[in-house]
Amino acid sequence: MKKLFAILTVVGALTFSTASAFAQSEESAAPAATEQAAPAADESAAVVAEATIDEEVDVEGEPMHQVLKTQFLDGGAMWMAPILLCLIIGLAIVIERVIYLNLATTNTKKLLAKVEEALNNGGVEAAKDVCRNTRGPVASIFFQGLDRYNEGLEVVEKSVVSYGSVQMGQLESGLSWISLFIALAPMLGFLGTVVGMIQAFDSIAVAGDVSPVLVASGIKIALLTTVGGLIVAIILQLFYNYLVSKVDGLVLSMEDSSISLMDIITKYNQKNR
């Protein structure tokens, strides 16, 4: 439940900030569009050339976030909003997973040394106290194994293996959702592109003439959705690979430390026969 609240909080914050930013850009764009109404017909050639130069200068001088807002609005909110939502939710899950996996990281060598020392000096209960006071999945696995020491070494080994699988599932939790958004964002982008191309050809059919301006504007809007979907997929794919490598490292550490724990428990059992 805490994890769900954390994800919802991050999603809400990112969504609110993004929506307010786009709302401000729309409000600022509206009066600008009104001021630049239509030039006089007899000045067409000179005014168009001058406006083109001015626009190029303005675009070059605009900050990156303003350019992204403009491209987002040009792509159409109906198709760009779901893509942006995939990015926001995906990043929220990524942040939660990064925090969880960093908290789950444990110095296994130091923990094994403490468990062995406590086991030799204070017995099983002392070793369990060490595991109880240590954060992370490795300590939880150790505790489950030591808790069943009186049932025999075979039961201890089975308990360590079984609980290790449970902890592995918790480490991999949420990665399937990130993978879903990686696949979904480009699909939404391609869908927006196809729909945009259809609308462009419909406009050509209604006009009865292939106007370069009509075709270019339609194709631009269509392709912006594809670009947005690919950018989202690339960003989430980078974080996904990082998380997978982090999980693999933790799982390898869990397996290696579990074998070492069994060796420690075996030696302790042989001493106390």
Q: How does the overall form come out from the CA principal axes?
A: rod-shaped
Radius of gyration: 29 Å
Number of helical stretches of at least 4 residues: 10
User: How many separate domains make up the residues?
Assistant: 1
Approximately how much helix is present in the residues?
A: over 70%
**Which structural class do you get from the secondary structure elements?**
mainly alpha
Mean pLDDT: 75
- What can be said about the biggest beta sheet? none
Intertermini distance: 45 Å
Q: Percent of residues in beta strands?
A: under 5%
SSE arrangement, N to C: HHHHHHHHHH
Describe the structure.
The chain is mainly α. It has one domain. The chain has ten helices and no strands. It is rod-shaped. The protein starts with a helix and ends with a helix.
List keywords for this structure.
mainly alpha, 273 residues, single chain
Give a concise summary.
The protein is mainly α. Helix content is 88%, strand content 0%.
Indicate the topology.
Elements: H1 2-35, H2 44-61, H3 64-75, H4 77-104, H5 108-122, H6 124-132, H7 137-147, H8 153-171, H9 175-207, H10 212-271
Helix pairs in contact: 1-3, 1-4, 3-10, 4-9, 4-10, 5-6, 5-10, 6-7, 7-8, 7-10, 8-10, 9-10
